[in-house]
Amino acid sequence: MKIEEWDEYKHFINAVNDAVVNISSLPSLTKITSHVFNTGGKKLRPLIIMLSCSANGGNYKEATKAGLAIEGIHTASLVHDDILDEGLMRRNQQTLHTLYGPAAAILCGDYLIAKSIEWISIYEGKIV
Known about the structure:
This protein is mainly alpha-helical. The chain is built from 6 helices and 2 strands. It has a two-stranded antiparallel ribbon with strand order 1-2. The radius of gyration is 15 Å and the shape is globular.
């Protein structure tokens, strides 16, 4: 069975799509965030979190926000890294700073870090 067929994976991809659509009331930020979240990648980090939750007696859906937080932090680090390295392509797509400029890319990366803190903050202190 392919990873794309797993219920956990499908659930997370739907959560990412919902998060991107509702990430901001600013259309430009939604557009930029959509670009970086939908450039590919298997989303293994959040899947590991969700499967770990299930393996420890929880419902994988309870770990969705934690998965979003991890994916958000990871994505923000890639955005910032591409600026520093002057990368032009990531996952066969133009990097954010080449499409929208470095200022917009930095702000998007910073916003994703802040949003990730919001997503993770719903959990108990030990998880955070």
